[in-house]
Amino acid sequence: MIRSAVAVWKGSPAIGEGLVTTTSGVMSNALYSFGSSTGNEPCTSPTEMLAASVAACMSLMLVQEMAKAGLKHESVRTEALLTVEEKKGRWEITHINLHVTASLPQIDEEKFHRASRSARSKCPISRALNVPITVTTKVEEVVHNEVAV
Questions:
Q1: Backbone angles phi, psi at 135, to 5 degrees
Q2: Domain boundaries in the chain?
Q3: Could you say which architecture CATH assigns to the domain 46-141?
């Protein structure tokens, strides 16, 4: 499987802007800059897109691992906090912190934590990065209230 994207940059690094498009069409001429946004137009950045990729991958891998363990879920939410620092004149991603919350109809802490450890080790995006990644997990029990009519 090959996935691709095209990015075009115009202008200087500080005040220029770029457009990024994915072959799926989900992103089509999405505005990006070095920071998270410049001016009044909403835009993204390469590091923000990487944070989104890590979060999406972790959620997907966790859902796959929970399915293997027989755990049903309502939802899995992963927030990625990616830290970028300037070191010796170069920008570096120094850490990624993932906060994962799973909403389950029935909680089985042991199976959930085993699935989350396995998911972390199987995420191809995280494995491709040479960056420390920490994961915190939280399980919420879903309560369905029946309404009598």
A1: -130, 125
A2: 1-44, 46-141
A3: 2-Layer Sandwich (3.30)
Closest by CA to 115, choosing from 106, 102, 99, is: 102
Query: Is the Cβ–Cβ distance between 55 and 97 less than 8 Å?
Result: no
* pLDDT confidence of residue 144: 66
Residue 37's pLDDT band (cuts 50, 70, 90):
very low
DSSP characters for 57-123?
Answer: HHHHHHHHHHHHTT---SEEEEEEEEEEEEETTEEEEEEEEEEEEEEESS--HHHHHHHHHHHHHH-
Q: Give 22's DSSP letter.
A: E
Q: CB–CB of 5/21 below 8 Å?
A: yes
pLDDT, residue 147, reads 56
Can you give the pLDDT at residue 38? 45
Q: What integer is the mean pLDDT of 49-78?
A: 95
The rounded Cα 13 to chain-centroid distance in angstroms is: 26
Instruction: Please give the share of the chain, as a percent, with pLDDT higher than 70.
Output: 91
* Listed residue (5, 10, 3, 54) closest to 28, CA to CA: 5
